[in-house]
Amino acid sequence: MHRSALLTPLAAVLIGCTGCAVVSTDVAAGGAVATAPASQSPPAGGTGAPAEEQVARAVFDRVNAEREERGLGPVSWNDDLAAVARGWSQEMSETGRFEHQDLQQVLQSDRVSGFTAMGENLFRSTGPVPAGTIHAGWMRSDEHRVNVLNPGFDRLGVGVFCAADGSVWATQEFGRTTGADRPAVASTTPPVEPIARPEDDGPTC
């Protein structure tokens, strides 16, 4: 697990990212194949929206800025992946366990439909941090960048949980839809640079 400290005017905020998880399912062995989910609109994320929604939208936009910078197809928002992501962020907060969930189980459940592969990135901090800090932390981590810049993914859901103790928990759930017109899900690590959105800015809890 990677940990670093971000010095703020008020306190030292401990930040952690844990290595990405990627799973796929054998479609041929799985029987009937669900139809790929249609593209959906991401949350509006305006100033009147809940903070968690604002942060999730800002992170989503930054992911596509990175993909555009590298000549990759954008990911579309998916509500089911977002629900899985937010639920896991909240569960980690409540249990204090900073670890990946069983994505194979998620992929084969009725919580998501029409996906053949998933990838997951996790983030936590002990205090409020802006969306840019969450995104930059993932981009500067080799294991997480594999998901953010993976040419095989075409959907994304982001879930953020702002806990009562001030801690922030965030999860990205990437997905590859059935019949996706994309290259295979890759395991190679893209280079760090260029990071299109390295700024520690944006909405916060």
Automatic annotation (TrEMBL):
It comes from the Bacteria. Residues 196-205 have a biased composition (Basic and acidic residues). SUPFAM superfamilies: PR-1-like. Keywords: Signal. Residues 175-205 are annotated as: Disordered. Pfam families: CAP. Residues 60-174 form the SCP domain. The keyword Cytoplasm does not apply. Coiled coil: none annotated. The keyword Signal applies. Residues 1-28 form the signal peptide. CDD domains: CAP_bacterial. Gene3D superfamilies: CAP. This is Uncharacterized protein YkwD. It comes from Modestobacter roseus. The lineage of its organism: Bacteria, Bacillati, Actinomycetota, Actinomycetes, Geodermatophilales.
